[in-house]
Amino acid sequence: MTLAEENYLKAIFHLDLESEDEVSTNAIAERMETKPSSVTDMVKKLAEKKMLIYKRYKGAQLTEKGRKIAAGVIRKHRLWEVFLVEKLNFHWDEVHEIAEQLEHIKSDELITRLDNFLGNPDFDPHGDPIPDKDGVLKRTEKKLLSELEKNHSGVCVGVKESSGGFLQYLDKKKIAIGTKINVLGKEFFDGSMVISVGNEQFFISKLIAENLYVQTI
Amino acid sequence: MTLAEENYLKAIFHLDLESEDEVSTNAIAERMETKPSSVTDMVKKLAEKKMLIYKRYKGAQLTEKGRKIAAGVIRKHRLWEVFLVEKLNFHWDEVHEIAEQLEHIKSDELITRLDNFLGNPDFDPHGDPIPDKDGVLKRTEKKLLSELEKNHSGVCVGVKESSGGFLQYLDKKKIAIGTKINVLGKEFFDGSMVISVGNEQFFISKLIAENLYVQTI
DNA sequence: TTACATATTTAGACTAAGCTAAAAATATAT
DNA sequence: ATATATTTTTAGCTTAGTCTAAATATGTAA
Ligand SMILES: [Mn+2]
Ligand SMILES: [Mn+2]
Ligand SMILES: [Mn+2]
Ligand SMILES: [Mn+2]
């Protein structure tokens, strides 16, 4: 697998989670920041390698083989992110770009040892689950903060968006993985909320609430 | 700098240390395991980028710019090797291939933090010096074991060859970085030696003696 | 059902990095 | 100094991955 092939598989894997049926050429192109024509070429190649099933004008669907390789790359990405944050003290908004590079290092032994060195973590610094050796992704019970009703509470377990800007906003508001959040009010009209975090109480927009995962308590 | 460009610069840097004048096309090709015609293309490109000075039919010479980039890649390679051995408990004969990949990860911050995490080591697991941030390579006083005379002693400080086979031979003989070696006898005719290491006493061929660096005591 | 809009594929071109085979320059040995 | 051998370069092809522009298929709305 080349670096480009791995990135395509990863993108298709993620898109597959977001919607059930086959993944469209344009969706892949948008996610990869490439042109649809480039995607067509690549999915044809990946289809030849039995990584996915491709039907002209329909889209792509990962095979078990392709799914496993994608999960392996995601596993590496997330383990490296844990390393960067836990061992090198990077901040959670600084690790993604570096992990994008590290995820392509090829050595099974390396990943096994890294995993052990890190204490076999289950989640990455953004709360995303780390696939196991066989590519199995543990599904956890989590919902978006926006789904909580007034007077309900949750513990932050992850972020949907993990752009620098969003993560820095959360820092400013003292929200991190493990932080308890109480919904004090919810505006039906625009989906905004008033929440309390620790002793602070403030307003958040719908956009924020829709990008924070919580586990209800 | 692409991965290929970095590898060429690294090869030329190493060849430059081994002999004073400009580095020949064939020498680069041999070291890179590519064809001379490919080397010609690449050195032209690197010359355009001011990484080296290239004179047709003469060879290549790194500029300060090229030398610094090469040293940076070597710095990364050796720091990662230290990480693999010290933190992930890899054996010294298993790390080179992985470091060949890791050395191309681009992030200054990563290397700064990795360096600190490792305690700012001066040498890699094979006894090779780690260039500093500015690409300066500390020259150390060391000689080949083959240069020692009978009844002299040295401490092993590095290996010239670091192939798996050679390193495994050293393990078998209980020779590692820091091991004291006494020359009990030296055969003028074939350069072989009788040495003692700890309580053991044995014969080594010239080939071995010419690939072990020692510091005299 | 026809017409328009959108999605997708095809055709053809480009760059990076490699190769082979042939040509040209340099080095060496009589 | 000439002939031969070696080294290096050039010319022309190849593959991976990308792009633009044009062609084609599919979806939608009158
Ligand atoms: Mn990430
Ligand atoms: Mn992550
Ligand atoms: Mn090495
Ligand atoms: Mn080394």
Q: Specify the helix fraction band of chain A.
A: 40-55%
Named CATH architecture of the largest domain in chain A:
Roll
Low-confidence stretches of chain A: none
What oligomeric state do the depicted chains represent? Answer: homodimer
Largest sheet of chain A: 6 strands, antiparallel
**Number of DSSP-assigned strands of chain A:** 8
Structural domain count of chain A: 3
* Average pLDDT, all residues of chain A: 97
Helix/strand class of chain A: alpha+beta
What's the alpha carbon Rg of chain A, rounded to whole Å?
19 Å
User: How far do the termini of chain A sit from each other?
Assistant: 43 Å
What is the strand content of chain A? 15-25%
- Name every ligand kind in the structure: manganese (II) ion
Shape of chain A: globular
CATH topology of the largest domain in chain A: SH3 type barrels
Instruction: Please write the string of helix (H) and strand (E) elements of chain A.
Output: HHHEEHHHEEHEEEHE
Query: Spatial order of the strands in the main sheet of chain A?
Result: 3-8-4-5-6-7
